[in-house]
Design brief:
Layout: H1 14-21, E1 26-30, H2 39-54, E2 60-64, E3 76-78, E4 84-86, H3 87-91, E5 98-101, H4 106-110, E6 115-120, H5 124-133, E7 137-139, H6 146-155, E8 159-161, H7 169-181, H8 183-200, H9 202-219, H10 233-236, H11 239-242, H12 245-258
Parallel strand pairs: 1-2, 1-6, 2-5, 6-7, 7-8
Antiparallel strand pairs: 3-4
Helix pairs in contact: 2-7, 5-8
């Protein structure tokens, strides 16, 4: 069962709607509400966002920068081409193609056709929404279950991961390029999107089963009778039939009879 998705999600704000509709290849960045890292890593993340725009890999970036203070960045960034940019102008939304916000309705952003890549910490909620919307992920796990989530997403071919202790701008750029252009990634994303949409419907089946068990217990108060209807058929049929050994024996006798 799962991912378990809500029936309703907050829509895009007017500002975000204008921004995302005005950019055809959007990178969405969000690391959750408890993301804390070093000033050096913050600089590398921000520089990578500028670099991928300058390299025309994406034409817009939305960064939901909820907890990280604007003081947690160096005043300037040195770009790969030797130029410098002021971080304050970017963080104060003076860059025409980077939108910094304290909150973004994540599902609405990911579900927009113009969003092409999700740069995330790899939390469970973000992972489920990425799968459901068919958005490849670049994962920077910070702690908890995020490392395991990153490994699982990589194993099914829809994500690549980074190491917070060895974060490098060029590594971020190269992995974004792979996720945006690799045909196998695109196929895997579509495959997992389809499966996620199917499996998300099973929450109704789960709710029905829970209600049935509660009803049955209410009807059979004081009884220790098992839920026989949930016992697998092979268990009820016995060892021989449950493992198809009776079929194998029959086939063996037929073969011996022919010989």
């Amino acid at each position: 069962i799962g991912p378990i998705m809500s029936n309703e999600y907050p829509p895009l704000t007017p500002k975000l709607s204008d921004f995302i509709n005005g950019h055809e290849r959007v990178l969405y960045v969000a690391f959750g509400g408890r993301f804390f890292t070093t000033v050096e890593n913050n600089n590398k993340i921000l520089q990578s966002l500028v670099e991928v725009i300058n390299n025309n890999m994406v034409d817009g970036v939305i960064w939901a920068l909820s907890q990280t203070s604007k003081d947690d960045f160096s005043p300037t960034l040195n770009l790969n081409d030797g130029s410098q940019v002021q971080t304050s102008s970017i963080l104060n939304n003076k860059h025409p193609h980077i939108h910094i916000t304290s909150f973004a309705p994540q599902f609405a952003v990911l579900n927009h056709t113009n969003t092409k890549l999700f740069f995330s910490h790899g939390g469970a909620g973000s992972t489920h929404e990425s799968l459901f919307t068919g958005t490849p992920m670049l994962v920077l796990p910070i702690g908890g279950d995020q490392m395991g989530n990153a490994d699982k997403l990589k194993s099914i071919g829809i994500a690549l991961s980074l190491d917070k202790f060895a974060l490098e701008v060029n590594d971020i750029i190269n992995k974004m390029n792979i996720l945006l252009n690799d045909e196998d990634v695109k196929k895997n994303v579509e495959r997992m999107k389809y499966l996620a949409k199917i499996n998300s419907k099973r929450k109704y089946r789960a709710a029905d089963l829970i209600e049935y068990v509660l009803l049955r217990n209410d009807l059979n108060k004081g009884s220790d009778q098992e839920l026989k209807e949930f016992i697998p058929a092979d268990t009820r049929m016995g060892f021989m039939r449950g493992n198809n050994y009776d079929v194998y024996v029959t086939i063996l006798f037929i073969i011996l009879g022919i010989i």
